[in-house]
Design a protein that fits this description.
This protein is of the alpha/beta class and 226 residues long. The protein has helices at residues 10-21, 33-42, 57-62, 78-90, 107-112, 121-132, 139-145, 213-219, and strands at residues 2-6, 25-30, 48-51, 70-73, 96-100, 116-118, 148-154, 167-168, 179-184, 189-191, 197-198, 203-209. It folds into 2 domains: 2-137, Rossmann fold (3-Layer(aba) Sandwich), CATH 3.40.50.720; 147-219, Alpha-Beta Plaits (2-Layer Sandwich).
């Protein structure tokens, strides 16, 4: 597949590496020249890096959006992601547009425009891979049928469970089939591993069964009605 990624930050870089490792062609559009230079240094040579605005159709044309199977917008701004995906869909007729949504309140807007809204790097990768293997079942449909949900848990800033120095996620025993897939702060969002430390005020992206959401909230002392 040919995949065009708008936004070369941490999420865009991670996706590009993952998709290229799986044999897909990737073009990344990034308007910050310093970030574009960084991508050229860390991504495989076959990656096509474009220094430009992903909301500009001319730069999407340079990325061969007309031949793209999937267009993914991963910037930290919902308005930019929406515009970029709309251009990809309407001008270049890209069959699938997937966007990172930073504010959950905007999910309905993206869905109404025919854009698939997601907020986890891992889930974006899975959605793209469903298309790569021509699966008869879309990832999001699979999740709904099996009562799996993705939720955001914002850690209280005044909480004895999470001192200012932070705590490792590995210290917590999560419910069966539940996992924390990403952690975000005001500055960034990252996938997690066994050494990930979380701090008061961080937002956790949790993947679990619906019935376990309240258990997770109680575990991290997040108000159930949040």
């Amino acid at each position: 597949m040919h995949i065009v990624i708008c936004g070369g930050g941490k999420i865009g870089e991670y996706l590009a590496k993952q998709m290229m490792a799986r044999g897909h062609e990737v073009a990344v559009i990034e308007k910050d020249p310093d970030v574009a230079t960084h991508l050229a240094e860390v991504l495989p040579r076959k990656a096509f890096i474009i220094n430009g605005d992903g909301c500009d159709s001319s730069f999407q044309a340079d990325a061969d959006a007309a031949y793209a199977d999937v267009f993914v917008a991963t910037t930290g701004h919902d308005d930019e992601n929406l515009v970029a995906c709309e251009i990809a869909r309407t001008v270049f007729k890209v069959p699938r547009a997937i966007a990172r949504v930073n504010n959950p309140k905007n999910i309905r807007i993206f869905s109404a425009c025919g854009i698939e809204p997601v907020s986890s790097t891992t889930i974006i990768s899975q959605v793209i891979e469903e298309e790569a293997f021509e699966s008869d079942v879309k990832t999001l449909s699979y999740l709904r049928r099996h009562d799996l949900v993705m939720s955001e848990l914002t850690l209280p800033t005044n909480n004895r469970i999470f001192p200012r120095s932070g705590r490792k996620l590995s210290e917590f025993v999560l419910p069966k089939n539940a996992m924390i897939v990403a952690v975000g702060s005001d500055e960034s969002i990252d996938t997690v591993d066994k050494d990930t430390v979380v701090y008061p005020g961080d937002t956790l992206i949790a993947f679990s069964r619906q019935n376990d959401v309240e258990t997770l909230k109680q575990m991290f002392r997040v108000p159930v009605d949040q």
